[in-house]
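Deliverable D4.2, example record:
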Amino acid sequence: MASPATAARVFPLAKAVRHLEAGDWQAAHAIVQKDESPTGSWAHGIVHLLEGDLDNARYWYRRAHRTLPQLDTVAAEIAALKAAVAGDRKP
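Output generated by the structure prediction step:
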């Protein structure tokens, strides 16, 4: 079972992923800017990719210890993030 701290972080990130899937980076940003975890930083980087702010995206990807992807792979990044967040929920 996920620890209470993990659960408290994962559920907002799951909601942020739903916003990202819908293309609503502003709503996702309101959530991910409160999460300083590597997964939250990754989500924050995706937000800035969608926004078109590559300098900020690069910063958040560095904080997440991930390589900045090509812009045409944002949908794949969101899918990978979704899978990672779902994996955090499993016991």
